[in-house]
Please model this.
Amino acid sequence: MADEDDDIILADLNDEELVEQMFDDLYDGMKDEIEDAVHILLDRGWAPYRILTEALVGGMKIVGEDFRDGILFVPEVLLAANAMKGGMAILKPLLAETGAPTIGKMVIGTVKGDIHDIGKNLVAMMMEGAGFEVVDLGINNPVENYLEAAAAEKPDIIGMSALLTTTMPYMKVVIDTMVAEGIRDDYLVLVGGAPLNEEFGKAIGADAYCRDAAVAVETAKDLIARRHNQRAAG
Amino acid sequence: MTGTPDSDTRASAAPNDATLTAAGLAPTGHGKVLIIACGALAREILALRARHGWDHIDLTCLPAILHNHPEKITDAVREAVARHRTSHDRIFVAYADCGTGGTLQTACAELGVEMIAGPHCYAFYEGLTRFEGLDEITSFYLTDFLVRQFDAFVWTPLGLDRHPELRDMYFGHYETLVYQAQTDDPTLTDLARSHAERLGLQFERRLTGYGDLETAMARWAAAG
Model:
């Protein structure tokens, strides 16, 4: 796609064409082009939140679907994520200034013994794109880190990630500790990572297993909405 | 393994690495005991068989590239056990858990076949007890086979051949490439060191030999 795009001048495209082009450029991991397009839309008076949701998140949704369907692979997703990150870096300070809606707060990190954070980073980025405030604990987190962050940040969601079959059981340690301390039901717990599955998520007492970043966003939105409804009904 | 004590004619009967990666190895049909192994262990198992004269052991290997798709290993082992059940008296499985999340252990128990204890080959080459004490979460491991097949298992699947700029997204939290050497081969050591440089990691070489693989095979040879 890159060759076909050589002659395209982004500023000459109308809004609709430009957003379509941004979908293509995200798909192809073209960070510079995404940054240029974000500036163009800002100059045209688009609200930062609209650019984020319609252009960047919309484009990443296609990337996520093609990853799920085996059309794209991890390297391509990483390049796309890197391009989105470029756009997000421009928008993030503006989002804060313009009072964009925040739909929830998430604390996320990879569990103790696990330094693999690609999946966690993708989830954090997509959650931010969807309007969540994300507190990223980074890698190799013992249970204390999750509990301290939960107490300090008061998130709606605690997210745990693991790539290794040797580290994923640690998620149960965190959840069991939350149960023992009587705080388990104060939070939604989402888990993810390549070796996990839905059965594992249920077995350890998580609220949901999320197969990929797009699913994590949809699951988080859905569970938060349900919790609000339950509280409203109660 | 040229120049090593194990480079006899039987060891060299192993197919080339590319074949072991993509296709595996068919059994010869000779021998009462069959080992179903990861293709990444073929040369080592054949070398041990030659060293100890375990002529009653036959070997078949699944494609080594399943290492990159651990969710496929358990079904592949099940199918291989079913296929070879009647042709040999005893079957053993030369895999550790290898990222199957315990499903391979469950399957082997159901099938009544023994496998190798531990999380992966890095653990059994090192010796499971010693490996568990190392606690090296920032180490990236390569064996003899993986040093030779580095591009097929690491560089290309991660897209680093096309996008070297992704390197630090994958390896940024690693510190050291640990080469667990099964054989004392200066050429392989140089190659492993060059892989560490490509990944931006420090290099450490440990001559592990065959570790728990040899112990397991000795038990299986005696059982047959």
In short: Strands of chain A lie at 104-110, 132-136, 157-161, 188-192, 208-209. The first helix of chain A runs from residue 15 to 27. Chain A has a mean pLDDT of 93.
